[in-house]
Amino acid sequence: MTPMPFGRLALIAALMGLGGPAPVPVSAQAVDAGALSPGQEAAGATIAGAAPQLANPGSAARADLDLLWSKVKDKAPIAATVPDLSAYSDGTMIEMNAALNPEADPCITAVQAALFLDAHLVETGLWEKMQSIDRPLETAAQIAMIWVLPDVFGVNADGLDILAFRKASPVFKALSIGANALDSHEVLMKNNIGSVEQRQAIWTQEIVQNSIKNGWNEQIISDRRQYLQGKTLEYVGNLAELDTTTETAMTKAEAQYQADLAKIDQWEQAQYDALRVKYNVRQIWPDTAAVDLQTVKTEVTAKGQAARNKRHLKLTEIATAYDTTATGILQDIARSQTQQDALVRYARPIARNECETIQKTGPLPKVPFLPSDLDTPYDRDAKDDARLTAILALPHDQLIATLDTLGIWPDDRLLSCVCRAAGYGSSGTSQFYHPGTLGTYDKRYSCQQPGDPCIVSGFGCLRHPMPSDPGPWESCAAAAKGDSAQTLTDSILSRLAARRGVAKN
Description:
The protein is an all-alpha fold. Helices cover 57% and strands 3% of the residues.
């Protein structure tokens, strides 16, 4: 497929101020090394040149798309949910115009257009209608709220009753027990036709557009499916771990509550013992002790209520933490499963030149994984060290985009190892990979906004770039190799060789 010219994308982004900071050109060395073919935009390359001024970029984009659609509509195997371009904003039309290649296969262009519009369905009137549909079952927002204490329990609930409620929840069982968690995205999809359908469309468009842009072949698509399957299993493990830690925290909170009640009982007994001495009581309390007895009773009631309030606050804190974490995990599972399906439904037929067979609905074909071309050892040649150095010297965003083009997706644990091996922090600090916002976004602090991916936290928090020296990469890749035939760095070189048309092992 012919790559889309960069000038059109850069022109529209410059005119409209879209897309954030201007992309940095890919180094010539990286192109020479075989990571990218000249003119390919996988790592965000641009070309220089003055941009002519358009009076109305939105109208111009719609005119371009109308013309393009007239050429490809007869080749479209699928249609957008809302195909009327007037239902979408000018900004969306400009982005769509930039994303489509008018020189590409008409069928592929039509599929891209349909998926792009579906990913922006929120802009159309149909979105409001979908949101208004009454769903008697759990919605996506409610699914992860099962730890929130039900009204029937309230502050004075017995902690054991709360635990029983949690274990009896059919929604929780469907999401947290073994392989059933693999189907959690189906629970999300069935129970919320609005926001979840929109997220599903965005995830689908994201992975399909990526596969087309980077020219993934059937082998890389198979590798990506296997990678996503592994991530899904990892997320399921995270959900099971969250289940265990949350139940432990709730049990601990209940034990603390029982201990608080025991202390109240001890205090009450001590007060009565003191009053017995004061009033020389053997069996019957005299009338003169009534005020003191009422004071003790009132205090016991207050202490008991304080203990129940304390427990309720703690359980609610645990519930809120569970809600936040579980929601994220379920979203990860849903995204992983959705994108696995999208690779089979859309990306694989395109890679096999079978675009006309694509269908948006209907059962997915059972497609086995291909044996990976990374399952045999790789023998380096004299120029591989220079090639690897050129790739690892790329800025982080370009490096990740280049690896994505090659069909290589390093684990965050390996990348954290590389950050630690770079030696940015002292022994008393925590060093790890995290390019996104750490904690709550706050532009005043470097770690609480996206930036350089190597974080050093301990005495304050600072960000550093990934090391360009191959040494830390090689050592961490070797440590993470396990039973694999190739290290990460060998896989990079192996895929570069494949792109150059060199068969090596």
